Structures are given as structure tokens and as C-alpha cells.
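User: Let's play a game. I give you a shape written as C-alpha cells, and you guess the letters that built it. Ready? Here's round one.
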């Protein structure tokens, strides 16, 4: 199986220390930085926009994973179908699961074919980001 990528969602980071938080999860082994863009229409909340994404881009060399809150596929059966589809193709796609990711839901997601996990609270609300990232990978 390919390496599981972890993308900490900065929506759960301490915004007063955003630059430090980004550097901390990068040092802890994060693969990507996840940015949730919410406009208050698709979801009730409003998060941040292009200016913050530009700031984040300057803080890290990691890839940015930008989630525009638009209609998107949810549910594990769809992840499994994508994984099966992936097996039949030469060029593989990443299968990302976002929302409520903790060590238990990460395991289920990986078992169903996901290889990218987006986690906010389960990383940023702990004292050890590296352990949280390892736990998500099942390491």
C-alpha cells in the first residue's frame, strides 16, 4: 500500500500563532497543509479566503490542499468505489477523506482505500503533533 498522507487542517489551528502552528506541524511530519475555504453559502460558517491562503503559502514549502466548500462526495462506499476504480488505472489518483478524522476513522478510511487524511482537531488540539500524525497513519 502507498504511504498515507496527512494534511492538518489549519481551521483548527490557533490563528494568533498561525505561522508557528504551520511550522510545528511541518516539523511533526505533515505532508500537506489543508485550507478550508467556507463562503457561508454551502456551509453556514465563513472561514478565510485568498489572502490567508497566500500567507500560508509563504510559511511552508509543503503542498497546500485547498478545500472549496462545494458539493462533494461523502460516505465510505464512494471511497471504496474510487479505490476499486484506481486499481484499474495506470495513473493513480489520491483519495482524500476530510471530516472527523481521528485514529479510528483514519483506520476505516485507509481500509476503504483513502490515502490522504485531513485532520484538524485531532492534531491541533493535542500537545504532540508528531504523535497525532503517527497515530493517524496507524504507525
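Assistant: Ready! My guess for every position:
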Amino acid at each position: 500500500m502507498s504511504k498515507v498522507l496527512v494534511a492538518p487542517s489549519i481551521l483548527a489551528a490557533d490563528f494568533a500563532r498561525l505561522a508557528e502552528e504551520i511550522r510545528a506541524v511541518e516539523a511533526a511530519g505533515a505532508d500537506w497543509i489543508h485550507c478550508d475555504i467556507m463562503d457561508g453559502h454551502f456551509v453556514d460558517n465563513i472561514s478565510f479566503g485568498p489572502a490567508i491562503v497566500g500567507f500560508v503559502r509563504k510559511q511552508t514549502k509543503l503542498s497546500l490542499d485547498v478545500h472549496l466548500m462545494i458539493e462533494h462526495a461523502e460516505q465510505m462506499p464512494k471511497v471504496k468505489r474510487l479505490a476499486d476504480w484506481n486499481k484499474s488505472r495506470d495513473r493513480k489518483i489520491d483519495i482524500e477523506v476530510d471530516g472527523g478524522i481521528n485514529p479510528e476513522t483514519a483506520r476505516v478510511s485507509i481500509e476503504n482505500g483513502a490515502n490522504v487524511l485531513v485532520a484538524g482537531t485531532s492534531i491541533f488540539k493535542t500537545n504532540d503533533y508528531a504523535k497525532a500524525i503517527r497515530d493517524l497513519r496507524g504507525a
